[in-house]
Amino acid sequence: MSDAAVNRAPWQLLPELSTEEYAALKADIAAHGVRVAVVVDAETGAVIDGHHRVQAVEELRAKGIRVEYLRQSVRFADDEERVGFVLAANLYRRHLTRKQRAEVVASLRERGWSLRKIGEAVGVHHDTVREDLEIVGNPTISGPERVARRGGGSYPARRPRPPASVMARSAREQARAAAALQVLGDDAYGLMDLRRAEDLARRVNLARRRDSDVPVVTEGNSWELRRGDFVEVLADLPDHSVDAIVTDPPYDVAGLPLYSALSSFAARVLRPGRLCVAYAGVADLPEAVSRLSEELTYVWAGAVLLPGRHPNYRARMVRNGWRPVLMLSAGPYDPRSWLQDAFSSEGRGDKTTDAHHWQQTPGPFVSLVEQSTRPGELVVDPFAGSGTTGLACLATGRRFLGADVDPGAVSLAVERLQGFEAGTVAVELPDDEDDDREPA
Q1: Which candidate, 52, 39, 126, places its Cα nearest to that of 88?
Q2: Are 48 and 86 in contact (CB under 8 A)?
Q3: Where in the chain are the domains?
Q4: Measuring CA to CA, how many Å separate 66 from each of 75, 154, 169, 170?
Q5: CA distances, 98 to each of 102, 122, 429 (Å)
Q6: 3-class SS at 325?
Q7: pTM for the whole thing?
Q8: Which architecture does CATH list for 217-422?
Q9: Segments in 67-170 forming alpha helices (H)
Q10: What's 215's DSSP letter?
Q11: If exposure means fewest CB atoms within 10 Å of the residue's CB, which of 36, 189, 199, 254 is most exposed?
């Protein structure tokens, strides 16, 4: 094909489409879009399978025809895996002549593949492979690819796992997929969606942090983080010494008892009338409210609107798009400012692969810290996680004390807080909304 010729990569062993075949492909894409995902190398971004489709899309776009295509990022160990993938994806949808197949077989032979391995890859008997090699004059034979069983029969000498791959809908998602696959390394294989791959990468990163030496106490200019159960490591806080608690406890079923412990802790350490602000899950919201109300006084409930995709509650067939925020006080509530009860979470719900898998965006926390306290006051987070409340405090001039039982989370939180002090981590402050009304 003259107008669609591309540079040959080592794994592109199949012949190029003819001019007629390429024109038919391009016309089909213009009419129906790209039907099969383009496979790209997760490490290099190179197109492994689908270069004709990509070129057709680029030519159509140059003519003002808008066409998108799905990308599948795949992590390959070497060129041999790339070759095997291309053959498996193409041989049964490409009709090769005997001479074309012989040329492919010869290319595989030059890579050191055995007759049996080539036969399995191209879907013919190994004797047919030998005949194909005779056509191009390369009939040499290498070692066996199969091992004889003791009781008869044979099995492959090596059973490679399928390469890890991630589906992506854009170049941006392709970059995210590559980052996730790089973190996962050899621990991942098979096809995953982007959300699953990134969640696994975050958990792997967190597990690696747990293996590091995380101090029991880490201090900064106006903050402190402690590693351990908050009931124990924050037991030295004097009664009625804290200006606000802003926190995001675990809100799965196993974490619900923690709301009772939080209620007792907050009732002791909060100044009278001050707020305990806690995120909660939707599915078990009544129980979370009940447990927090054991020793605190209910004030209000807010909502954080969540952009992007989020898990659905399949058992109840609900597509969740918000997170409850509960506000309770130590004794009768003492209003010091107007409370906002609706917040928008910035961004699109994306997290980097080095984030905590439960990490929240800082915007709502900045608003919650600002309306619950005044500059210089002390905010405590007994479930500090990756330190989002701490970042909100540093960005708004509050003092911060946090604790978390997970050493991996503490390590990540310390890194983020130190990064903020060093100027390498930024927190975008929400727009101020002037309101000159006085509390009722």
Answers
A1: 39
A2: yes
A3: 217-422
A4: 29, 52, 15, 14
A5: 6, 12, 66
A6: strand
A7: 0.62
A8: 3-Layer(aba) Sandwich (3.40)
A9: 79-90, 98-110, 115-122, 126-136
A10: -
A11: 254
